[in-house]
# Entry
Amino acid sequence: MTSRASALGGSMEYSFRTDYRQATSGTRRLLLVASILVFLVGVQLFVFTEATEKLFAWTIKTPLTAAFLGAAYWASFTMEFMAARQRWWASARVAVPAVLVFTAITFVISVVHIDLFHVNAPDSVTRFLTWGWLCVYAVVPPAMLIILLRQIRTPGIDPPREQPLPTWYRALLLIHAALLVPVGLVLLVVPTVGAQVWPWALTPLTARAIGAWLLGIGIAAVHAVWENDWKRIRPATASYITLGCLEFVALARFPGDVAWNSPQAWIYVLFLLSALAAGAYGLWMASDNAARRAAADSR
# Structure
């Protein structure tokens, strides 16, 4: 059995080895709960896009901004939900650092702009949603940090990297990160300056909200390069597909919000196209490799 497994790149041993580090129940549960929460926020923003004055924590006047954020939340749902279903920590962790950074930054943004939140809204539903937002972002980052530290201390080793990413694919992800991280940081630190390079109008609060997402996506891209294995980054590739598809839907719904005569609008479109293509190719490669390994194991 051992020699045959070695000939197949370790695929048979992958199912039977007991010394591989598993994703703990705490990690999987936290990712599952987080996925449900971001899905619900996505409903508020992507479905009820033009009702944020009543159905969201703060009012977003530009519909495309709300739709963009809703699409990003649903993309995060895809990654976190898939990561929560992984047995091995190596196949789930691509979701954790990006989510941890995003949630921590979003909590800080919320505190900085608390005067714009509906904390004293006369409508009880609006007030409940606002305080729910604040409580979630106050609790999730420290909870995730504690779970992460416990996960890291879990005994075991990572499974081998059986299917490394091709050089061109890693280069594409690094290009994405090189674009997303600096723009995200500018939007976060100096939102009035960052808003000038965005393809539609932003306020300081919405600029920072988008900046947090760009930084999180950029971190996930760098992390995927480091993982360097199709199976390990499968949740991230699925998330890229969701992000690309839904952001295009958002553009189709609110094309009038975009300054189409600006070069940044077309850079944004090119990024979405490349993210969609990268996600589809990565998910296909992960599924194809899994199918071939299963077929080889059944012989």
Observations:
- Residues 22-292 form one domain.
- The chain has one domain: 22-292.
- The chain has 13 helices and no strands.
